[in-house]
Amino acid sequence: MSGMPVPGAGAGEPVAEWAGDEPLVFELSGDLRGGPREVEPGVPVEALERLLPGVGLRTTPAPIPAVPEPVLARHLGRLARRNHNLHQGIYPLGSCTMKYNPAVDEQLAGLTGFADLHPDQDIDDVQGALQLMWELERLLCEITGMARISLQPAAGAHGEWTGLRMIQAYHAARGDTARTRVLIPDSAHGTNPASAALAGLEVVTVRSNSDGTVDVADLGGRLDRSVAAIMMTNPNTLGVFEKDIMEIARIAHEAGSLLYYDGANLNALVGLARPGDMGFDVVHLNLHKTFSTPHGGGGPGSGPVGVAPALTDFLPVPTVERTGDRFLLNHDRPRSIGKVRAHYGNFGMLVRAYAYIRSYGSTISQVAQDAVLNARYLQARLAPLFPMAVPSDSMHEFVATTRGCRVPELRAIDVAKRLLDYGVYAPTAYFPTTVPEALMFEPTETESKRSLDLLADTCAAIVAEAERDLEHVRSAPHLTPVSRVDEVEAARRPVLRWKPAE
Questions:
Q1: Distant-in-sequence, close-in-space partners of 203: CB < 8 Å, separation ≥ 6
Q2: How many Cβ atoms from other residues are within 10 Å of residue 64's Cβ?
Q3: Pairwise CA distance, residues 73 & 196, whole Å
Q4: CB 284 within 8 A of CB 304
């Protein structure tokens, strides 16, 4: 390893932060037996053996590193700097909406009255938490145009599956049991077909037009009495608004099908347009994408799912209800699909989303307006470098391609990897799969013009580099702890733990 770039270094100027291989904390310790004092479990070993038969309790102390606190602090700091994050710089992953998480939301979620709750506490002790959940549901209903929302699902894909299960329950309650297929556009998120398959439904792919929108004629030709739902994202995965959405909703409902909204891209519409008003019957939300709760490793996640009036009976149990000034959990819902998550969802994420929505109030539409403005500005800056996948105006994100750029042999993966050398995180590469050599950018509303210009200038520097020395770009990254790896091997045989040398 030759070093790491300083985040925010000027385009064309990758700068090393440190050099040389850095040992792991295990390697810094001379004696793994002399680490921190272990706390007694407080449970007799005999009792553990009865509670956990056959598990195989440890007979020797765990090998915990023994190093002074400054050594440990610096080691953790080095690891943190190796992992790109939004405190370092822009994170323009298309489709993932990696926006900055406001510190005030973290502070509120950490309040003792929220953070120290136990899910089995007496209902009288958690009235404040239940009130927050009750109010959050109504705020999300207002934003989406849905009648009721369940806060239980633990992630967006979990919300997809929950929504599809409610759609199945709706059709079954009507005796319409032949509806076993789901129509999904060819540019959809991969979780859509995966969730449908997990629910036991057959996936049918619908073509897109050259402008990136759903081919309504192709969709209409596939609609019959076997279709339970159409799953759509609007704006879609190419960042294009589905201008025919009202017509799609009409023909779907006339055919007895329901319309499902993947909320991954609601950040482009929040406060401006509501899925319910477009004709959608079920909506899932990614609180980390639109409402700024931590994403990925900062989770856990949350994927609330909302329904139109005809499907409210099928919501997961329990639901939060209000009687006068008292809040309660209602388990008495005979037509419910049942529980989909332990207890009532990931409560800490609900607090963060609630704080985020309340802080914007009636001005929350500014989120969508700024997200679209940033995306269109970045698209205009990058258009001279990379052709755009479709000619349509983008909303909050857009898809470019290296196919047809000034350096014919330059691939999307080359640009993505070389960006890392400049302390700039790469956009989503090779998605959607309908676009060859795709680079999918989503800057979000939380980025400044300066950070957008830095990203655009860095991309320009990389293209210029490729014109002078293509092999240097194709062998990037050069300044990261790990250079280009065999991604297939890494995915199929990941090394997930460190082992000492024999």
A1: 181, 182, 184, 193, 196, 197
A2: 15
A3: 45
A4: yes
* Residues in CB range of 43: below 8 A, 6 or more apart: none
Residue 231: strand, helix, or coil: strand
**Closest residue by Cα to residue 89 from 77, 79, 98:** 98
Over residues 448-468, the pLDDT tens digits come to 999 999 999 999 999 999 999
Q: Which two tokens stand for residue 77?
A: 């700091």
Q: Report the alpha-carbon distance of residue 472 to residue 490 in Å, rounded.
A: 23
pLDDT digits (tens, 9 = 90+) for 35-52: 667 677 777 877 877 887
Distance CA 224, CA 108 (A): 49
User: Residue 304, preceding bond cis, omega within 30 degrees?
Assistant: no
Q: Which of 417, 458, 413 is nearest to 438 (CA)?
A: 413
Distance CA 464, CA 468 (A): 7
- Tell me if 455 sits within 8 A of 448, measured CB to CB: no
Both ends of the chain: CA-CA distance in Å? 23
Q: How sure is the predictor about 497, in pLDDT bands with cuts at 50, 70 and 90? A: confident
Whether 378 and 441 have beta carbons less than 8 Å apart is answered as yes
H-run or E-run covering 319: strand 319-323
What is the tens place of the pLDDT at every residue in 414-432?
999 999 999 899 999 999 9
Work out the angle at residue 195's Cα, subtended by the Cα atoms of residues 193 and 200, and round it to the nearest 5 degrees: 95
170: left (phi over 0), alpha (psi -120 to 50) or beta: alpha
Output phi, psi for 428, to 5 deg: -70, 130
Residue 223: how many other CB atoms lie within 10 Å: 20
Domains located in the chain, CATH noted: 117-362 (3.40.640.10), 366-492 (3.90.1150.10)
Longest dimension (CA), the chain: 72
DSSP state of 298: G
Copy the structure tokens of residue 305.
Answer: 């799912």
Q: Specify the amino acid at residue 143.
A: I
Report the share of the chain in percent with pLDDT over 70.
93
In this prediction, residue 23 carries a pLDDT of: 80
Beta-carbon contacts of residue 350 (< 8 Å; ≥ 6 apart): 132, 133, 136, 151, 287, 302
User: Would you say residue 492 has pLDDT above 80?
Assistant: yes
